[in-house]
Design brief:
61 residues; mainly alpha
Amino acid sequence: MNDFVVALGLVLVIEGMIYALFPNGVRRMADEIPKIPDSTLRVFGLAAICIGFFVVWMMRG
């Protein structure tokens, strides 16, 4: 459970940095997301899950 809380904290730090450093880029990206087909978003989401799972699996053994 401790690792999960640490991971959640790191996600918040990284997301906060993106919003703080690139607010205009985040706004532009938010405007473009509705134009992307659901299937493309789904594929990228599944790819992110697989990559994240692989990284955790490699680091935690």
